[in-house]
Recover the amino acids of this structure.
């Protein structure tokens, strides 16, 4: 009972600060209970839902700054908490708000709305409700992606959103092919620039081409094998041209896509043969050992690391297995398809990736992790280190580190004692 509380709309000056401050605790789902007094979970959930309702209302505010801050706050919450039941009751309202913000908003607001659409589908998983969301948002996203007058940032965000949402929700093979064609029409423009020049020049469109290529590659991983073969025949001899692009991210995206295409090609045909293998491996080896002085050291280090793995995949059919830890569980990334999927979800979930790997049924299903592992309170308590214990450990480590460094810095120290 009682009077309903009204959400006071924020002014332009304090919208971004005050709105985001509500979500400061969302980045760490454990922050509500860690080493503190007992918390009334039901009251905390009610308080959270009350704030989220306020943010949903603010997505309709007249101020663009307020709308964007509300979208960012919802993104922060959706990436760090499982809110399936709350969202289920309001999915149409959220979908309408996102559609309106993408259609009528400016660049930053469109980017925030596209990011929220991704998280909305991640929360809902692959069901009928998600298909309804995609039926509404899909055409709007495609329109922005293909709109040459829209900002590059908005088109880039919509291309990523289009790929991820299609990956999550669509069971319709026609829709899958249609979405891939839309993305192909974008990134294949990077091929065309290579016809008249030896290298691909970097332009302001490159970021859009990179996002479209990565989204397309993600969708390729769920295509039937006969379609995979067609796409490999269509793109495998064209993609190496993008390795000459001035933009580091395009070179890396092209290299990783090549590694994934070779992996899929060899799955479909164990005797797969690529005619220009020598030329391709020569290009990849040059990128893996690049020492150009005009490039930043950080860029060179990143490029060499990526292309060593790509070269190993193309030339030796090898993949360096990576391990991801989350809670008491471990996940092994042992192929390029899994790596591409993991990197995509990590990009949209950010710091909430581990939490969703533990708790989100859909995300666990994508990575074949089975149902969430249920741990009782006693087991969780034994696994968690208290703040006081962490403080003692950090203090001891700091003292030992300082002592060791002091010895090395003391000019009077006898060099012989270190051997």
């Amino acid at each position: 009972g009682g009077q309903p509380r009204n959400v006071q709309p924020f002014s332009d000056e304090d919208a971004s600060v005050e709105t985001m401050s509500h979500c400061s605790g969302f980045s760490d789902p454990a922050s509500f209970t860690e080493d503190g007094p007992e918390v009334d979970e039901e009251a905390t959930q009610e308080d959270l839902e009350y704030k989220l309702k306020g943010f949903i209302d603010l997505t309709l505010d007249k101020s663009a700054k307020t709308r964007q801050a509300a979208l960012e706050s919802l993104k922060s919450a959706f990436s760090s908490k499982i809110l399936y039941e709350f969202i289920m009751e309001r999915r149409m309202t959220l979908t309408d708000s996102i559609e309106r913000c993408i259609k009528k908003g400016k660049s930053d607001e469109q980017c925030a709305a596209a990011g929220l659409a991704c998280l909305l589908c991640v929360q809902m998983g692959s069901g009928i409700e998600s298909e309804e969301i995609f039926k509404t948002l899909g055409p709007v996203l495609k329109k922005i992606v293909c709109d040459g007058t829209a900002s590059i940032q908005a088109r880039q965000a919509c291309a990523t959103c289009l790929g991820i949402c299609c990956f999550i929700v669509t069971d319709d093979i026609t829709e899958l092919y249609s979405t891939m064609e839309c993305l192909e029409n974008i990134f294949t423009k990077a091929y065309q620039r290579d016809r008249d020049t030896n290298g691909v020049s970097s332009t302001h469109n490159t970021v859009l081409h990179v996002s479209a290529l990565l989204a397309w590659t993600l969708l390729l991983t769920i295509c039937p094998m006969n379609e995979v073969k067609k796409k490999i025949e269509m793109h495998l001899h064209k993609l190496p041209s993008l390795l000459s692009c001035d933009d580091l991210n395009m070179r890396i995206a092209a290299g990783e896509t090549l590694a994934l295409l070779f992996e899929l090609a060899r799955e479909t045909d164990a005797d797969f043969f690529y005619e220009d293998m020598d030329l391709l491996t020569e290009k990849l080896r040059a990128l893996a050992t690049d020492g150009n002085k005009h490039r930043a050291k950080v860029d060179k280090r990143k490029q060499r690391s990526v292309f060593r793995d790509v070269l190993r995949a193309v030339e030796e059919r090898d993949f360096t297995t990576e391990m991801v830890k989350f809670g008491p569980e471990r996940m092994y990334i042992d192929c390029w398809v899994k790596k591409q999927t993991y990197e995509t979800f990590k990009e949209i979930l950010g710091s909430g990736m581990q939490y969703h790997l533990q708790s989100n049924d859909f995300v666990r299903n994508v990575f074949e992790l089975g149902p969430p592992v249920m741990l009782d309170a006693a087991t969780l308590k034994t696994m968690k280190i208290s703040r006081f214990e962490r403080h003692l450990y950090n203090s001891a480590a700091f003292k030992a580190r300082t002592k060791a460094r002091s010895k090395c810095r003391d000019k009077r120290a006898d060099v012989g004692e270190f051997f």
In short: Residues 387-409 form the longest helix (23 residues). The radius of gyration is 25 Å.
